[in-house]
């Protein structure tokens, strides 16, 4: 994989200064422009290869489509719901985040809200500032012995669990991916949401915002909870349905809410913020010096490592790309792309492609199974796609254009060299090619039914000439005397 060149990065939010410093130390020009409106961002983004954001910049499809040079969107933080990841993937742009940099800070704020809810700390502090001394009004309840339901048992959910266990809370939870035995090892008993709702005194959500998590707590689920349940949302606005929460607070079904995040930030509708049983923060989960230093530094280092071709860390939409950063992958990628390009030329008059079958053989090809399909498809589809094709978008493009792609790997049959065989079906005709790497150079071994006695180096410009085996014809094309030419079906 050719190194990804990043010369200019735009930072569109307040990101720790270490981010800029690290990028600049590595020869990347950095511009910081915060609080841009959408139109300003659309106008500005054209000049950059990289964009670094936090949660406030909405990197919509409009912004992405205006970004002709953009190669990376770096999120100095966890949630990427403010980035249209599908649009970025389609355009071949890497989306990268720093998912562990603010875990502890977000977990600590969640715990602070749980404690504040149990003892009315913000309301009492406000009352004191107003000159009152009201001991009765702010009667609280101990957390000790209460049940905390944690929905989403990833990084933050886990840290919240261990901290609240030290207060003597019983922690139960639900997560569709984290195995129950794993969460049990850190003291969280997993169960279905149906079982969880009625048991909880407190519920905290720690899932990403996505269609399946929008409105996890809604009118119906609130009704299944204990009367007076208290809820915390330090994940994303909308995971707890805001209108349902307000109704539950008003009816007393919900006894209090701690909110760090809102569907609209800042929220124009202040009904929740102003409710006496709600304590809220302006999205402060990651707002600590430590978290910001980690996230700012991490995103810059991840970008630099990628540019230097060292490794790819934190990419959320480029799983294939991550396996292409090893030295040995470079020649194999060239091989796949070249075999794809040869087949593209051979089948030029027979489009569209309907099926591509890729088979790799031999131990040395085992490591490339993750990216060989993408490499072949890049070679095959590059000229016709009309967009910049790369390992981030090529599988999607093949799928969108209805090309059926199969890949298989076969263990070595004793032959030392690894082989990559590709069969392409276009307009009912089949085209086949196989290649290998000899002495660091990708070579063609077979093309359709012709086997080359002398492997053909897949470098530079190649002319494939199809004719019946006739030394006279070949000598006239090559401009050489007959005795110096040998011909097969393809030469
Ligand atoms: N308030 C803040 O400033 C702040 C800071 C950091 C992160 N966050 C938010 O917190 C979220 C969680 O962060 P994390 O680092 O723990 O992420 P994570 O990916 O480690 O954990 C998320 C967990 O949610 C689980 N999940 C997915 N769908 C689910 C569902 N339907 N029901 C239950 N669980 C489900 C996943 O399996 C995963 O284990 C982020 O997506 C981000 O939006 C907010
Ligand atoms: O997802 C995150 O990382 C948090 O919500 C933090 O967002 P922020 O970087 O805008 O504070």
Plain-language structure description:
By secondary structure, the protein is α/β, with parallel strands linked by helices. 33% of the residues lie in helices and 20% in strands. The protein is built from 18 helices and 18 strands. The strands form 3 sheets. Strands 8-7-6-9-10-11-12 form a 7-stranded parallel beta sheet. A 6-stranded mixed beta sheet has the order 14-13-15-16-17-18, with helices on one face. Strand 10, helix 11 (242-251) and strand 11 (254-259) form a beta-alpha-beta unit. The two termini are 29 Å apart. 42% of the residues are buried. Mean pLDDT is 92; it is low at 487-491. Bound molecules: nicotinamide-adenine-dinucleotide and 3-phosphoglyceric acid. Residues 54-56, 77-79, 102, 283, 285-287 line the site of 3-phosphoglyceric acid (3PG).
Short characterization:
This protein is of the alpha/beta class.
List keywords for this structure.
491 residues; 6-stranded mixed sheet; 33% helix; 7-stranded parallel sheet; binds 3-phosphoglyceric acid; alpha/beta
Derived from helix and strand composition plus strand pairing, the structural class reads alpha/beta
Distance N terminus to C terminus? 29 Å
Please count the beta strands (DSSP E, at least 2 residues each). 18
Biggest sheet, in brief? 7 strands, parallel
Globular, elongated, flat, extended or rod-shaped: what is the shape?
elongated
Unreliable spans: 487-491
Strand-helix topology:
Blueprint: E1 8-11, H1 17-25, E2 29-32, H2 38-45, E3 50-53, H3 61-66, E4 72-75, H4 85-90, E5 94-97, H5 103-119, H6 121-129, E6 147-151, H7 155-165, E7 170-174, H8 180-185, E8 189-190, H9 193-196, E9 202-205, H10 219-224, E10 229-233, H11 242-251, E11 254-259, H12 271-274, E12 278-280, H13 289-307, H14 319-322, H15 327-346, E13 353-361, H16 372-381, H17 394-400, E14 404-410, E15 419-426, E16 429-438, E17 441-447, E18 450-457, H18 471-478
Parallel strand pairs: 1-2, 1-3, 3-4, 4-5, 6-7, 6-9, 7-8, 9-10, 10-11, 11-12, 13-14
Antiparallel strand pairs: 13-15, 15-16, 16-17, 17-18
């Amino acid at each position: 994989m050719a190194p990804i060149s990043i010369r200019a990065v735009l930072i569109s939010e307040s990101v720790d200064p270490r981010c800029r410093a690290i990028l600049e130390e590595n020869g990347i020009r950095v511009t910081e422009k915060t609080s841009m409106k959408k139109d300003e961002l659309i106008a500005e983004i054209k000049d950059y290869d990289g964009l670094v954001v936090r949660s406030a910049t909405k990197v919509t499809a409009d912004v992405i489509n205006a970004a002709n040079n953009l190669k990376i969107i770096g999120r100095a933080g966890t949630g990427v719901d403010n980035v249209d990841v599908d649009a970025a993937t389609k355009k071949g742009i890497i989306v990268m985040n720093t998912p562990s940099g603010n875990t502890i800070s977000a977990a600590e704020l969640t715990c602070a809200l749980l404690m504040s809810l149990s003892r009315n700390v913000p309301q009492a502090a406000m009352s004191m500032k107003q000159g009152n001394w009201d001991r009765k009004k702010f009667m609280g309840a101990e957390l000790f012995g209460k049940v905390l339901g944690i929905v989403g048992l990833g990084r933050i959910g886990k840290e919240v669990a261990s901290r609240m266990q030290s207060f003597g809370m019983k922690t139960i939870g639900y997560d569709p991916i984290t195995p129950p035995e794993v969460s049990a090892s850190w003291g969280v008993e997993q169960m279905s949401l149906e079982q969880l709702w009625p048991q909880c005194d407190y519920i905290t959500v720690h899932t990403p915002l996505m269609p399946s998590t929008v409105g996890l707590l809604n009118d119906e689920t609130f009704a299944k909870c204990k009367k007076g349940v208290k809820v915390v949302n330090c994940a994303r606005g909308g995971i707890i349905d805001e209108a349902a929460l307000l109704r539950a607070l008003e009816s007393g079904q919900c006894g209090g809410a701690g909110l760090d995040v809102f569907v609209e930030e800042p929220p124009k509708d202040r009904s929740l913020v102003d409710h006496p049983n709600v304590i809220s923060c302006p999205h402060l989960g990651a707002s600590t010096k430590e978290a910001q230093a980690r996230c700012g530094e991490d995103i810059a280092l991840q970008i630099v490592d990628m540019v230097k071709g060292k490794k790819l860390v934190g990419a959320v939409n480029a799983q294939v790309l991550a396996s292409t950063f090893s030295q040995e992958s470079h020649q194999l990628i060239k091989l796949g792309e070249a075999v794809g390009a040869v087949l593209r030329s051979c089948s030029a008059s027979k489009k569209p492609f309907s099926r591509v079958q890729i088979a790799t053989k031999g131990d040395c090809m085992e490591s490339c199974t993750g990216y060989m399909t993408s490499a072949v498809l890049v070679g095959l589809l590059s000229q016709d796609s009309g967009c910049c094709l790369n390992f981030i978008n090529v599988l999607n493009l093949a799928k969108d254009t209805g090309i059926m792609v199969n890949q298989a790997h076969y263990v070595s049959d004793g032959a030392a060299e690894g082989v990559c065989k590709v069969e392409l079906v276009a307009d009912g005709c089949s085209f086949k090619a196989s290649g290998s790497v000899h002495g660091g150079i990708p070579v063609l071994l077979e093309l359709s039914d012709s086997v080359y006695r002398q492997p053909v180096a897949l470098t530079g410009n190649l002319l494939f000439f199809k004719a019946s085996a006739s030394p006279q014809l070949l000598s006239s094309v090559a401009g050489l005397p007959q005795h110096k030419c040998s011909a097969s079906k393809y030469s």
